[in-house]
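To: structure subgroup
Subject: Chain for Friday's discussion

All,

I'm putting the inputs and outputs inline so they're searchable in the archive.
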Amino acid sequence: MIMNKVFCILLIIVFPGIVAGQGKFFGGNGDGFATATISNQVLPLLIEDFEGHMEQNSIRLRFTIRSDEMLCGIVVEKSRGGSVFTRIDSILLYGSSYMPEIFSKLDNSVLPGNNYYRLRIVKCSDAFVYSKIIMVPAPMRNIFYYSSADQKLYYYLQKAGVLQVHNAQGQLMVNKMIQAGSGSLMLDIPASGLYFYQFAGMPAVKFIK
């Protein structure tokens, strides 16, 4: 009697994300067999097309994440000199897929000269990996930006001038001479709300304290 070939597979979980299988092929007179291994390896985490460019007074960052691992977040980090990085933004992620995800973030806190960026990809296992570091140059010109994290107004000025801050009702809250160079100013504004700062006749810029 000729027996039909039977393929028996025993699945063994080696560790999360990797599955191995072993089987025996029995046939004919049943006196021979062969073994086979099946592997389902997690795809590596890939950070692709990470680049940045000036967009008016801001820097636009774009990048693609490709992974089959569970990812919980992306932290965008920035450095002035390319060595010490601080977090400027974050993106929450919920799971992952084989399809690549494309991201775009805008950095409004641009200082003249070289701006360095890197990405910290946080896995749901609490492990993380860093991207390559990219550098985006910004032109040397008068630049202001308000940081809500420490409630300071950072600036780079090519020449001295008067900084004025008004509230939403048009009342003058700050009137201060600022010297050329870079620095920061703690605004003496007690109440939270919408304000506008203006330097040496430049267009007014709104911010929220």
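Points worth raising on Friday:
Residues 46-138 form a domain with the Immunoglobulin-like fold (CATH 2.60.40.2060).
Residues 1-29, 32-42 have pLDDT under 50 and may be disordered.

D.
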